[in-house]
Design goal:
By secondary structure, this protein is an alpha+beta fold. The chain has helices spanning about 1-10, 15-45, 45-60, 65-75, 80-115, 130-185, 190-220, 235-250, 270-285, 320, 345-355, and strands spanning about 230-235, 255-260, 265-270, 295-300, 305-310, 360-365, 370-375. The protein is elongated.
Length: about 375
């Protein structure tokens, strides 16, 4: 905290120094001018002679009458006239000082206009405001990055919608085609009918999966995460999930190994945390090697419970590790009708974990990929 305060003080050093010397110069100039004006009004007799001559020539007065008017009008009101002249001068000086100082606000205002207008020009201010210039340019760059990230996410979503719409047509065409064959040939041999029914059912399941992904995209944009927390037996939850994934693991010779103590409990929303683990495990199953083991372990670490999911598979490039939790991001660059989802699973997992005041991270090397979820006890 102290270093931040020192930094803030240093930021204003140039501006404070400039304002201090400028104000000091103005004070000295004002004092010198006031003294000079008093001296001129008080000592310069030519002023009185000029006024008397002006009255005589303008109003055709005698010299004695002009002197009397001068004496009663000007000389007897010397202090008031001096005060008015000095006051007028000080007002002019103050106006000039304010104009000089407000130019800094004008520069900052112009810089903020560039932010609002999203101008590509760099924001430049006076040397005394270099700290403000740096902050405004930093805000400008952050806004540009956020805008680009939002546009990229929107583009990825649009691409996925187009891909999913295209993919829906394929299984739907197959379903219609096979059902038409079954309808047109009621006396079809049982073996062939069973084959066509099996293919139709498989395509219908795929169609259901794609439609669910459409709902996932919409739900992610509209949902607000509300937690209904309860006590959760972590081992029981993970064992249930392993049983649910068994049909997906067996055809490829994959297995799940759960190393969690039976007494380890969580305090959280069971349904939403199950969704987190489900999304991580689906990712692990999709990208792990055949005949490999997906290891799940958990332990208590200080005031947190750390759950680790490890699978053996091709390493995730570092560039993709930095964006893997972004919404509508898919790990495989090419579309895959078997493993490519809507690119929301890990993004949703991160949202839920953060709502529980936890963290989720991923590491990947040549040997394995590890997802780590850290949740408070």
């Amino acid at each position: 905290m102290k270093s931040k305060r020192d930094k803030r003080k240093n930021d204003y050093t140039k501006l404070k120094r400039k304002v201090f010397f400028q104000m000091l110069l103005i004070i000295f100039a004002a004092a010198a001018t006031v003294i000079l004006l008093r001296f001129v009004i008080q000592r310069n007799l030519s002023v009185s002679d000029s006024i008397v001559r002006f009255l005589m020539n303008t109003f055709y007065l005698r010299e004695s009458d002009a002197v009397i008017i001068y004496r009663y009008t000007f000389l007897n009101n010397y202090s008031v006239i001096t005060f008015i002249v000095i006051l007028i001068f000080l007002i002019i000086l103050l106006r000039f000082t304010i104009s000089w100082f407000t130019k800094y606000f004008d520069e900052v205002s112009v810089g903020m206009d560039k932010l609002v207008e999203e101008s590509e020009d760099e924001i430049t201010l006076s040397p005394e405001l270099d700290f403000m210039e740096n902050k405004l340019n930093q805000i400008k760059n952050n806004l540009a990055k956020q805008k680009k990230a939002a546009l990229d996410a929107e583009q990825r979503k649009n691409d996925l919608v187009v891909y999913l719409a295209h993919d829906i047509k394929t299984p739907l065409t197959s379903v219609i085609g096979y059902l038409s064959l079954l309808d047109e040939a009621p006396d079809m041999p049982p073996e062939q009918k069973a084959k066509y029914v099996g293919v139709t059912l498989e395509k219908a399941y795929r169609l259901e999966q794609l439609i669910n992904e459409f709902f996932e995209i919409t739900r992610f944009n509209l949902q607000t995460i509300v937690l209904n927390k309860e006590k959760i037996n972590l081992l029981f939850m993970l064992q249930q999930m392993a049983d649910e994934f068994y049909p997906m693991l067996t055809p490829h010779g994959k297995q799940m190994s759960i190393n969690v103590h039976g007494d380890l409990t969580l305090w959280g929303d069971a349904d939403k945390l199950a969704r987190v683990f489900n999304n991580i495990l689906k990712n692990a199953i999709a990208y792990s090697y055949e005949n490999s083991v997906i290891d799940i372990s958990a332990k208590q670490q200080d005031k947190d419970i750390v759950i680790i999911f490890t699978n053996q598979g091709n390493p995730i490039p570092q560039a993709k590790l930095d964006t893997i939790f972004e919404k509508f991001y898919r790990l495989d660059s090419a579309r895959s009708t078997n493993t490519g989802g809507a690119g929301l699973g890990l993004a949703i997992a991160q949202e839920i974990v953060m709502a529980h005041d936890g963290t989720i991270s991923v590491e990947s090397n040549k040997e394995n990929t590890t997802f780590t979820v850290k949740l408070p006890c």
